[in-house]
Amino acid sequence: MRIELQNFTKRFGDTTVIEDMSLSVASGEMIALLGPSGCGKSTTLFAISGIHRIDGGTLHFGDRDVTRLPPQDRPVGVVFQNYALYPHMSVADNIGFPLRVQNLKPAEIKRRVGEMAELVQIGNLLARKPQQLSGGQQQRVALARALVRKPDVLLLDEPLANLDAKLRLEMRSEIRRLQRETGITAILVTHDQIEAMSMCDRIALMKDGRIEQISTPGDMYERPASRYVAGFLGNPPISFLRAEANGQLTIGADNALPLPHGTAARGPITLGVRPEHFGPQHRGPSIAGQVSFIEPQGREDLIDVTLPCDQRLRAIVPAGHDIALGQPVNWQLDLSRVHLFDAEGARL
Amino acid sequence: MNTKGNWMLILALSLISAPLVIMYGFQLIDSVSRPAPGGIIPQEWELTNWRFLWTSIDSARPSIWRVTFNTFVFASATALLVCAFSITAAYALSRLNFPARRFFLAGLIMLHAFPTITLIIAIFIVLQFLGLYDSLMGVILVKAALELPFGIWIMKGFYDSVPWEIEMAGVQDGASRFRVWRELILPQVKPGLSALLIFSFLAGWSEFILPLVLAPGADAQVLATYMNAVIADDTRPDYGLFKAIGMFYALPVIAVYLLFQKRLMNIYGGGTKG
């Protein structure tokens, strides 16, 4: 089911949290609302679910206008960060609750709960209470409960935040599998860029109640629309260098780079260099500095290079090098992969 | 654990509570024995002090069983009323956004700390006007009303500790707000509810001033006023009898405390899940 949010505005009291935001999600697509806490991503999610009233704009599921529909009547399943399982009910009763509300026959409820439990692989846990389950199992129950009444839209609010690292990895692919198998349109709210990139078809990166950029994970990583986007995606993060464009790029007094092709910018600009595009193993113009930090990672090392102008670049260097702390280096930069931003942070 | 320190602690606590324990002990002993005049050592064991259970101790007095029944009705009706109003009012104060909510919350705290006995004359006039003066019904209503601020406050604390997400999940699952409250939220505050039920029952059981002032007649007498009347009437005080009646009056309270200690502690724990 296609989701179309148009000119959405949300106010809490006198504060406008989100103004004039538009978002459309294609049928069967899984999209991530990514951003730091307080950027309005959960607010948007709960406006789509119906828990928050929409103060301005419209929301359509397919051709149907659901802007004024109460949450009970929206064909939406929600998974909450803390799962919000009903503690006094067994797993089967938890999953069956949305069906009992619809007054279905007990036999029908039992059949559909069984089906759903098989789908999320908890068929053997139906008699347990939520406290007796591990985090990952609780998460599966929450997913089953959200999907059991066959909603058109699945909303996930930080579903992996309460899990430990290993389970997070497992549930990441599990949620994606369920979404693909059911073909449901899904929106995932997260502050974790890796979650967003690995699970979703597209990412909407939010900042201060606006969508900064909306694109596929690969495109957003390769062509960030702004300095903010470039800084948000990538681990280890991108390094930024202040530079002066005057026919060439001057970085401090000692380093200068040719301007990349098709750039006619002048004045102060910012260079964004990802650590995988800088190092002794690359080809291109070189930058001189001194090794100021080495962080071994096993397969590769992260090496910080401090330039004479006291700015810092980070490089990923394959393990097995003989670089020492304090050593002066003159390493190459893959100039075609460098991002340029103007003084306001917009991509050049 | 330091055993020596423990023993010191136990000794200190025993010394402090000794007067109370001695009083309780003699209340029990004296109710089934007769001491020498002026002495405290029991001379012979007898049950005559408990005669009020099977005979009328004097002609004008209602039977003890009738009075006990009244007390039970008074205490349980109060407890039920308090609980019924507390679970709904506290939910509204905890979760619903309605006009003047802050005013009601502030009022609740104020009423909770208010010395209610200063209202007794106004209450007397209101009951008289309603024709409920000198009836059990009237005292029940007054006692329940005065206990409500406490009950609502306690229950609000329990509701506040239930995560919002459970409620949001219920609504999203298609249930009405009322159904969410009945089937999903109420079970989470059950420990608080049972504690409040017991607590307000005991408060009703031990209430003295309200029945004394608002229902002085023989028909609506409760154990507290009955005992008071026996003591006040007697020209030649029979302390053995007073102690036996006092014992009889206190037994249910002791039993309830022993049985439900754990649940009562929930109230003071402030909303932990039992």
UniProtKB/TrEMBL annotation, chain B:
**Which InterPro entries does the record match to this protein?**
BP-dep_ABC_trans_perm, MetI-like, MetI-like_sf
Q: Where in the cell is it found?
A: Cell membrane
Task: Tell me what topology the record assigns in the membrane.
Answer: Multi-pass membrane protein
Q: Which domain of life is it from?
A: Bacteria
Question: Which keywords does the record carry?
Answer: Cell membrane, Membrane, Sugar transport, Transmembrane, Transmembrane helix, Transport
The regions listed as transmembrane in this protein's record are 7-26, 72-93, 105-130, 192-214, 241-260
Question: A single Gene Ontology molecular function, please?
Answer: ABC-type maltose transporter activity
Which residue numbers delimit the ABC transmembrane type-1 domain?
Answer: 68-260
Q: Gene3D superfamilies in the record, alphabetically?
A: MetI-like
**Keyword Transmembrane helix tagged:** yes
Record keyword Transmembrane present = yes
Function in brief: Part of the ABC transporter complex MalEFGK involved in maltose/maltodextrin import. Probably responsible for the translocation of the substrate across the membrane.
Name listed for the protein in its UniProt record: Maltose/maltodextrin transport system permease protein MalG
Protein's organism? Marinovum algicola
